[in-house]
Amino acid sequence: MEPLAELDARVTECAACPRLVAWREEVGRVKRAAYQDWTYWARPVPGFGPPDASLLVIGLAPAAHGGNRTGRMFTGDRSGDVLYAALYELGLASSPLSVSLDDGLTLRGVRVTSPVHCAPPENKPTPGERDTCRPWLVQELEVLAPRLRAAVVLGAFGWQAALPAFAAAGWRVPRPRPRFAHGARVTLERGTPGADGPGQITLYGCFHVSQRNTFTGRLTPAMLRDVLREAAGEARVPPYAPLDSRPHAGG
């Protein structure tokens, strides 16, 4: 088994946080009325994307009736609708829709993950749960490191969780730690300067694709595309098709 696939399989078996285990399983039993016919995933949700990804998108945690239902990051909820539509328009996803594990969606050069792999009550993991889950993100970064060139971090929580993970995976994080802002850009070095092997990575801050942000216009589709486009250029991700041939939504 490939290292990333093996890591993803181990993630799905984690039961380290009792509160999150109880919540994800309760949600899977009770269900939302619209999804009564679904068999909920109700386990930790691994990252999604190819093992040779040079661009990483880091969110917060799976949604109770999104990833916790479908088993894939940002799949089956409105946040995912916004994210994957943007990735598709930039030629980084094979479809603008992310509905279920068997919908055929693939990503090109991009992987989507989060610092917390279980759905938390009210979408709010505790600091302790964030820290307990950090080793999974660290291991993911270590596996991706040889090709990873850029990361888009969605929201302040993700930013605060990601920086220690990058540090633990061998990148040098400036002191004081850079503050989150939409449009923030920070370059981290890894290893000995000038040496062969994984080197620098550029982090981009972006408001989270939450309904609160997208419904109020704090984050528009155009704003999201701009950040993803810049990061994809830094990561040298070739799109599925020329950008000017992709559908372009207003916003």
From TrEMBL:
Keywords: 4Fe-4S, DNA damage, DNA repair, Hydrolase, Iron, Iron-sulfur, Metal-binding. GO terms for biological process: base-excision repair. Signal peptide: none annotated. GO terms for molecular function: 4 iron, 4 sulfur cluster binding; DNA-deoxyinosine glycosylase activity; metal ion binding; uracil DNA N-glycosylase activity. Residues 46-228 form the Uracil-DNA glycosylase-like domain. Belongs to the uracil-DNA glycosylase (UDG) superfamily. Type 5 (UDGb) family. This is Type-5 uracil-DNA glycosylase. It comes from Streptomyces spectabilis.
